[in-house]
Amino acid sequence: MSASATTPSIIQTVAENGLCAGCGLCQSVAGEAVVQMRLSSAGYLRPYVRAALSEQQARVLRDVCPGMHVGHAPQPDAAPQHTLWGPLVGVRAGHSLDPEIRRQGSSGGGISAIASWLLDTAQVDFVAQIAVSDADPLRNEMRLSRSRAEVLAAAGSRYAPSAPLAGLDALLARGERFAFVGKPCDVAALRRYALHDARVDRLVVCMISFMCAGIPSIRGTHELLDKLGADRSQLKSFRYRGDGWPGMAKAVTHDGKVYETDYNSSWGTVLNKHLQFRCKICPDGTGEFADIVCADAWYGKDGYPDFAERDGRSLILSRTRRGEAMVSAAMAAGALSADELPVSDIARMQPYQVNRKQMVLGRLLATWLARRHAPRYRRMGLLKAALQANKIEWLRNAWGTLRRAKGEQL
After folding, report:
1. Helix (H) or strand (E) segment spanning residue 182
2. pTM for the whole thing?
3. In whole angstroms, what is the distance from residue 37 CA to residue 27 CA?
């Protein structure tokens, strides 16, 4: 953790109170000579402060850091906002019509299909997305994909820390048009930063996100590999899922040995036990600030998804008019096949996100009581969502957060 006598108050407040999402925007705003993202002792990406922020840098970060502020700005032409699901223009379920993209993507290949189509139609010069590092199969790094092959190589979920905004200034300095793919908190920060840097609206053609259940510490991956019996020092490759839907967590060592387990065992029994604290008080697991959001369009019953292996299917939400135009055009061009869905179907496919949105106000209040610091969430329908919740469960969540808030590793 980056606390010292010279730590600027804005970063110290966010990091020391467990509010950091690890997006890396502070490094881009201040420059790597001032702030550098590093892996903390708890296994999360955190800002390490090397010099004092200027007043201007501190002012910008106070407004754009998702550990300080997340909210919708009033816009006269904004899409209708659903209490649980945020701005919605189009709701569909479908899949990539490229069989390889459909199989290698985390669900039906929705994000990879749209990203590849944007490149093929020259609407963007590159796609900025997180992919596995060539140097370390457990490390994530920003990748600039300029072809279908490169998009495909970056396909698949990465359930470990990533900081895709750490190099944002360098991306914008290229002067090229690009699509940005990131976690909901990354996209929220990028959208807000557009108010401070006009290059964002000029160069970022499309902001794409995915539904997120939280970011595990790298310790979660280490525990998973230990459970599989795989030697981390001998890893040749590792993927969290994909190559099917939902796909297997799969480790391959240099001697050719393969270790794997199903998605429900990897995420459900190991990785989700290592989430960073900021994720537990997040109001936006569904990418409300993106143009387009994709997620698993789970089949299931009785409010619980069925994780049986089958052909991938993506839930595809367009949140802006621009996003809707792109989804429609990608379908017309044969990149995507998708059918419209009633909004009520989202809850059946993503029951976890329903609970998350309904409970977050209680968790937020508990965080404030425990730490006297919490992010400001504005125009996100949290009170309305809380009123829809089971009151006993809501109170239980708030009490549990209050008890954990002081002991959580940051």
Report:
1. strand 178-182
2. 0.95
3. 7
